[in-house]
Design goal:
8 helices; alpha/beta; globular; Rossmann fold
Length: 212
């Protein structure tokens, strides 16, 4: 019987802009340091305070197209007029090492990753309490013009229409409650039958524990 650890978990968290997924993901990573964060490539310019290689890998559109042509992405999509993508090498390395990765990507990327790694992907969508509440949150940032907010709300409606492609839906009305639910999803996903089957077989075979 193989004693290799289970392959890594790919946890994808999506939401409309302003629904709170970044805060929730940061809380999950703080509690579970073993979760790596997938740093996407993007063609959009860095925002104030962002560092290349930390929040995103910032590349030119020409470089992004070269990476597509070379099949270097596990997933990629255009979002808000800019290209975003996840390096296939990063995903494959994490899976092979049994490491978990957290993704902050939209339904397009989630769909591609699920198609490519069906047994490793868990899809979570963060819902706002309402579109009115979402608009208020976007306005409270005081970083976007009215036309930008209107466009984000239009995109939000489109993204919400894909809720049925996700395994879990979590409403972020109260941050701590939403986080408790996200945490429960992650812990539960780690204990899916196909991920723990080797442990069960080891016990049946009379082994006390597997080395991992």
């Amino acid at each position: 019987m193989s004693s290799e650890p289970p392959r890594g978990l790919l946890m994808i968290v999506s939401s409309p802009s302003g629904a709170g997924k970044t805060t929730l993901c940061n809380k999950l990573r703080a509690e579970f340091p073993k979760i790596g964060f997938s740093v996407s490539y993007t063609t959009r310019p860095p925002r104030a305070g962002e560092t290349d290689g930390v929040e995103y890998n910032f590349v030119s559109n020409d470089r992004f197209q070269e990476m597509i042509a070379a099949d270097e992405f596990a997933e990629y999509a255009m979002v808000h007029g800019n290209m975003y993508g996840t390096a296939a090498s990063q995903v494959q390395s994490a899976l092979d090492a049994g490491d978990d990765l957290l993704f902050d990507i939209d339904f397009q990327g989630g769909r591609q990753l699920r198609s490519r790694f069906p047994k490793s992907v868990v899809l979570v969508f963060i819902l706002p309490p309402s579109l009115r509440e979402l608009e208020q949150r976007l306005r409270s940032r005081a970083t976007d013009a009215d036309e930008v907010i209107a466009q984000r709300l239009k995109v939000a409606r489109s993204e919400l229409a894909h809720y049925d492609e996700y395994d879990y839906l979590i409403m972020n009305r109260e941050l701590e409650l939403a986080y408790d639910t996200l945490r429960a999803v992650y812990v539960s996903a780690l204990h899916r039958q196909h991920r723990q089957a080797q442990i069960a077989r080891a016990i049946i075979d009379g082994q006390e524990a597997l080395p991992w």
